[in-house]
Amino acid sequence: MLTQLQIHHLRNLSQVALRELGQVNIFYGPNGSGKTSILESVHMLGMSRSFRAGTPRTLVTHGEQRCTVYGVTEFATAGQRASVAVQRELSGELQIKLAGEKLRSVAELVAHLPLQVLNAASFDLLTGSPAARRQFLNWGVFHVEQRFFSEWQRFQRCVKQRNKLLRRGKLEYSELSVWTRELAASGEQIHRYRQAYFEVLAPRFRAIMAELSPGLNGLELRYRKGWDKSLAYGDALASSEVADSEQGYTHVGPQRADLRVTVSGYSAAETLSRGQQKLVVCGLKLAQGQIMAESQPRGCVYLVDDLPSELDVQHCRQVCEALTALQAQVFITCVDAKDLEGMWPEGVNPMMFHVEHGRVVERSATDPTQEQPPSGCT
What we know:
The protein is of the alpha/beta class and about 375 residues long. It is built from twelve helices and 15 strands. It has a six-stranded antiparallel β-sheet, with helices on one face. Strands 8-12-13-3-14-15 form a six-stranded mixed β-sheet, with helices on both faces. A hairpin with a 4-residue loop joins strand 5 (about 80-90) and strand 6 (about 95-100).
């Protein structure tokens, strides 16, 4: 897990050093204090970027040229420790170091510190565009199937090249057919990887939701591969060739796949309350984290922003218990320390941090008003 975290000039966090992180880390304080920015910092260590939209100019503290996040991870089962550092310049330039060595790709960083994010944007899994759900699906497949990433890169090259040819005034069909065959083979492979992952994800999701919301009947997770399910991908491409040529892009394929949650056949986004939607999103993220934990020794780190919002005490406690059962490291925020009081199973002693005006101070878990002696937190 992540045992140390240092943040320099990220939003309103000028200088923060947390040198004693635990399995569960609760950050509480008023809105705008910097709680979510701490979660952003951990996200940068795992993804090289923030989970918020925006440019480096909005991420870097006003008046500074760059922001830097540094962390130390410990891999308990192997007794390994490694430092990881990510620096973003105002210009957009990115530097990543793992154990002191520069990384050539973000994919290496992603594999080192797998993450799950639960925040307001997570509702896009139900209410957003298919792109958000494809990203969720691909994220899970990436962490359980090592061959997926290179195949996805291959597919992206093929579809880009095919679309380029389709946009030409005069088509060279011999050249187009070469890329179409390559695209068909790659697309079928991506579908197989996704289908295999989905067949594991769906029952896990149903089992978790049976615990979180047993009264929610008829809940189903459905996968659509992006073309007519009765056709091979090559046949689907042949069927859409005229439309592709007329409009200049490939209409069918894995880039059109979707993952939908339904309740008795109806869209969950249209039938569930906001609180029920949040439970469903939690169920999806917990199911994915469970699969990741079983398929790789590192498991994953959960970044949970304002869990008590839209959830009652009982359901909030159930989510916290599920996170504990995963043995995942958790970084979680709330406004009042009492919002997450008594939510964790017996034996779990969360680290408590009070955040205000960009300053982070460790507090006692038994008495959140009691500031602890200096322990490297500023």
